[in-house]
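<context>
A single protein, sequence plus fold
<sample>
Here is the protein in question:
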Amino acid sequence: DYTHVERLRGVRYLGHPDLIWELAESGEARRIIIAVGERRGFLPVDKLMALKAAGLNIQDGIELYEELTGKVWLGAFSAGLLLFSHRWRNSSLKGFLNRSLSMLFAFLALIVSAPLMLIIAVLIRLDSPGPAIFRQTRVGENGRHFTLYKFRSMKIEFDGSPSPATQDDPRCTRVGRWLRRYRFDELPQLLNILKGDMYFVGPRPFVLDQETWLVREIPHYRQRWTVRPGATGWAQVHRGYCSSIEDNVEKLSYDLFYIKHLSLTLDVVTLLKTMKIVLLGRGAR
């Protein structure tokens, strides 16, 4: 039934599907994108197979969306997409290599950054009363709780405040604003990577109350816990801090894309994008 065709803004409507077949068979069309909600019993499979055999590119609309945006389409997402993903597949060897490389690079990074971290710790203690290291419970792989380490960037009376920081947040110390701008407050998370709580790249872990709320409000949110969290992530390099449920929904679409397409290449791209953000001082609060 093609009597009710949803027309997309900015996309030219070519007409009835029979006309599309004519365009494809005549060579005027080189690609057909399948983007229908219900496919069972509606797709003209024989025609599509004939066109594919003739050399046309038959592409799934959901895959094209992911290719163009770098995130999943939550409206068509299901846990089965992760279950049957050929890229997301953990093995003992892969897990051992990932863990070993993470520990090695974290250890080397700690050695290189140790003098800077010592200076930062002294500056924090001189700038305001309170400890230099901030500890907070976060939710990690399989919902396991762990203690995340950061340099304290807020005044001690606001430590553990659930609301995210804003630009020029009065709760931040003078040193804290500088730390947040260049992401130096994240350096102690190298210890979390050494302990095995996190990897360099993965979904960003949030506090327990926030995770509990988001699991209740957003479908499929729990799937973020199927992999180990990261100090940076695919969602973090595409979106800044979240201030609403809508922001978290979009961030989830990036996290699920990362999990579905998990690979060393994607990790390297994420790290390069993170370095660019840090060097330019963008996205920090």
